[in-house]
Amino acid sequence: MRLSLFTSLLAASLISFSALAGIHQAPPNFDYDGGKAIFVDFETAHYAITYDVTQKKAWVVSEINFTLPENGHPIYDLISVPESETIDGKATTSTEVSDPDRQSKVRVLDQELTAGKHTLIVRHRLTEGVSFKRGSLASAFWMSDLTDRDYLEQYLPSSFEYDQVAMTMHVEVRDSAGKTYQLRANGKITQTNGTVFDITFPNFYTTSSVFFHLLPSNSVPSSSVIYKSIDGRDIPVEAYTKLNAPEFSARAVQVLTELEKDYGPFPHEKVIIYGTAKGTGGMEYCGATISSLSAVGHELFHSYNARGVMPAQGNSGWIDEAMSSWRDYDYVQTLTPGAATQMAGHSKWMRLTDRNAYGKGKDFLAWIAGRMNERGQSLKLFLRDYFQKNVYTTMTTELFQDSLERYSGMDLQSDFNQYIYGKRGPGASMQQAQEKDSAVPPNPFHPRLTRQQVRALLWPN
Ligand SMILES: [Zn+2]
Questions:
Q1: d(C-alpha 323, C-alpha 365), whole Å
Q2: How close is the Cα of 346 to the center of ligand 1, in Å?
Q3: How far is CA 109 from the centre of its chain?
Q4: Cα(321) to centroid(ligand 1), Å
Q5: What is the distance in A from the centroid of ligand 1 to the CA of 208?
Q6: Three-class SS of residue 253?
């Protein structure tokens, strides 16, 4: 039963995404330059990434096929300024633009296009996530859900969280002085030789999914084990770290056993763990994590929430941090509500997760769990059902609330209004004010790393 459900979901996810899957979850289009800026649907993205070790340079040529749902200026994102852009074979340009609520920035093509299918080619220098040291190279695409524009757009031309994209990469290291490289990524890797790699990622991935870490061969100890899934699959688990790699892989197996027992088959084909020092917390990717030993449980649970069922926008990020934090706190139950928040009541263009998710989000789930328990129900059993029904899809707070209400039979509208949306009562206007970072204590699983600290994690230390 579990096997067939998982297999059919997997097959469905591989073959049947409609061209406009998820586009209805995009933020609103907005007026731009006398016309309209339009969120688009990426269908395929191919990234050719070249590193030149001698010249200490890296560049990317990206080919993106997308559908523009209505006439206007297509929106995508890339923080770097492109060296060149072409649309349908003709040279074009783009401009970095703030959204109408000034919550974030996006890249908008200067040219207006007609609705339909188009091909964008972008060439840019890759400078973030690349480090050349003593004739060697390290490169990684680290991300964070807690900072604006901190997903794939830091490194590559990308769409947004609502958009599921069939992504492929061709990776080449040139002038490597005989050195070979090892690429770790959460896709299917074909290695031509020690410097040339191709990756095909599952096509349910979004801009938050990709794990990518390129290092000189044998530069870090690793521990590989096979985890036998409850559905019969052999799932390769690799932990690599200068700390105790076998300790990380053993912890992963322990967590996988717990999570599969609670929530069903692990929804990814492999597990990669980049083990980092105590206090560095972690970050989740699909079937992968950069994590301290103590955060492995929190981060691997994110392979079900956040990177199995995936947030479609900033206003849905809280769901996953609330779930992973609820597990961190041993699935505590209460019969009293926590504090009011507007975790899902921010601007529709906001792209980061409200940090209240960890504490107040967890408190909200604990309260739902307590009330379900009184009705002879279980929030954990709901989650098991929710993950299996929604795996490989993008999620909004509205859909999550709807799932929870259907399962429990409870009317949660006024609770969501008060504790999640920050609406004080019927018709009350929503405050757009964002919680200041300093107002929310740090979460032990997601400490706030500086750019410098993140850069340092390119090289295992
Ligand atoms: Zn988390």
A1: 7
A2: 19
A3: 25
A4: 5
A5: 13
A6: helix
Q: Which residues pair with 65 in a beta bridge?
A: 44, 119
DSSP labels, 95-149: EEEE-TTSS-EEEEESS-B-SEEEEEEEEEE--TTEEEETTEEEEE----SSSTT
The pair of structure tokens assigned to 283 is 């970050």
CA of 284 relative to ligand 1 center, distance in Å:
7
E strand map for 159-205: 166-174, 181-185, 188-193, 196-200
* Residue 304 burial (CB count, 10 A): 27
Those residues of the chain that have pLDDT short of 70 are 1-21, 424-442, 444-448
Q: Within 13 Å and on the Cβ side, how many CA atoms surround 367?
A: 18
Q: Which residues of 216-251 are buried (b: 16+ CB within 10 A; e: fewer)?
A: beeebebbeeebebebebebebbbbbebebeebbbb
Q: How far is the CA of 362 from the centre of ligand 1 (A)?
A: 11
- Element spanning 37, H or E: strand 35-39
For residue 438, the CA-to-ligand 1 centroid distance in Å is 18
pLDDT in tens, 315-325: 999 999 999 99
Tens digit of each residue's pLDDT (9 = 90 or more) over 153-164: 999 999 999 999
Q: Output the CA angle 286-239-53, nearest 5 degrees.
A: 85
Neighbours of 86 (CB within 10 A): 14
Distance in Å, CA 249 to ligand 1 centroid: 19
The alpha carbon of 256 and the centre of ligand 1 are apart by a number of angstroms equal to 16
pLDDT tens, position by position, 104-136? 999 999 999 999 999 999 999 999 999 999 999
Which amino acid is residue 2, in one-letter code? Answer: R
pTM value > 0.70: yes
What distance in Å separates the CA atoms of residue 249 and residue 374, rounded to the nearest whole number?
A: 38
Q: Is 92 helix (H, G, I), strand (E, B) or coil?
A: strand
Q: Are 346 and 315 in contact (CB under 8 A)?
A: yes
Concatenated DSSP letters of 339-405 = ----TT-S-TT--SPPTHIIIIIHHHHHHHHHHHHHTT--HHHHHHHHHHHHTTSEE-HHHHHHHHH
Q: What are phi and psi of 429, to 5 degrees?
A: -80, 145
Distance 356 CA to ligand 1 centre (A): 12
Residues with CB under 5 A from ligand 1 (ion): 321, 324
State in Å: Cα 430 to ligand 1 middle.
Answer: 26
Q: How far is the CA of 151 from the centre of ligand 1 (A)?
A: 15
